[in-house]
Amino acid sequence: MRPTTYIKSPNGQISVGGVPLQDLAASFGTPLYVLDYDTLVSRMSAYREALSHMDPPGHAHYAGKAFLCRAMASLVQQQGLGLDVVSGGELATALKAGVDPAHILFHGNVKSRQEIRMALDHGVGRLVVDSLDELRRINAMAGDRGSKAAILLRITPGIDAHTHDFIRTGHFDSKFGFGLTEGLADQAVDEALASDHLRLEGFHAHIGSQILESAPFIANAEALLAFSRTWYEKRGFWPQVLDLGGGVGVKYGPHDVPPSLEPMIRQIDALVRQMTPSGQRRPQIILEPGRSVVAEAGFTLYTVEAVKTVAGSHTYVAVDGGMGDNIRPALYQAVYGAELDAKPESAPTRTVTVAGRYCESGDILIQDAELAEPMTGDRLVVWGTGAYNYAMASTYNRVPRPAVVVVRDGHAAVWVERESYDDVMRLDRALDGGHA
Ligand SMILES: Cc1ncc(COP(=O)(O)O)c(C=O)c1O
Fold this sequence. Notes:
29% of the residues lie in helices and 24% in strands. It is an alpha/beta fold. It is globular, with a radius of gyration of 23 Å.
């Protein structure tokens, strides 16, 4: 999975966004997160375009958890997408970037009082409610200020998306949302409708991430529509909005085939038509893509620091980053593809293990990478790292986090500075006179 502007010259020099990787490494150092602007914007417009054909037009909210910084939040708004946040920190980032709070959805299975207050103070568009405790809390807090909070209820529809256990969320036994079968979802609707300070605008269900089939998304739409019908028949309540969450997969490895957006959205549109009671307005469909907007645009540039062959076993290619900048392989066996810069096409390849620099045996970025004669000093690119890499990065081993730069039309711009050692120590305080 490479960005759309990827070019490789006959001598193997790679450039993306018109910028040679060797120049990126020389100007910004490694490891380095790079995002290709054109790929990013084309993924956003693919969602915008596909959803615009729905009736009423659907809307995409970019899920900031995949990758967020101030510039990204601004770009999302510029491109006409809404923004999902899941914490006060993400909300603060969006607000600082000037995102219109009305276009923000506040998610998360735990929202502190301070975060709810912040959302209400700033007029966040909708809060997505995850539990009865939260529902009551938001009702009381909106009541204290004499307002009404617009909410969606997060439903757990019982759809088992075929993805890794840690990133599937729509099955019945999940920490997220209100389950359909045990009556919790009904209880939540009942309470929401009876709450003086809540305006129930619809339902939300996110079934998981890195889903490579369209069937679970269609089933999700069907489940939310069927649930809505029961409430229409019972109490005449019909949602304005059905939010189907994110989860569209991307091509990390050669066997990953992501679902096509257009036909999937057409099928959802047909379902909405079919299942809306006559005389009622069709609900607006919201999608919340994170990974499928940003993963493919991103890559990480490393320097090979050592090549070590263990007799009769693996050849380890050790790079200057690892689980601190990409935890996903260690966390859930995520698979990535890699390539060396500046190696002629004709160079023979060998299967090696790309190892990170962190003090964990599990810090292996790629188990079996086909690389062209790796040598110390080479630049190694790991493709498809735009989503859930920088967002999940840590300073484990007190290694500063890499910078994020964006390439476009031959220029590179810094979106996030590289951390310094001072940044890593910024919140530390010295031992005071030898006393703890
Ligand atoms: C509620 C919600 N919406 C959207 C997303 C984004 O998912 P993805 O990045 O797979 O598109 C997530 C991811 O966990 C989520 O929990």
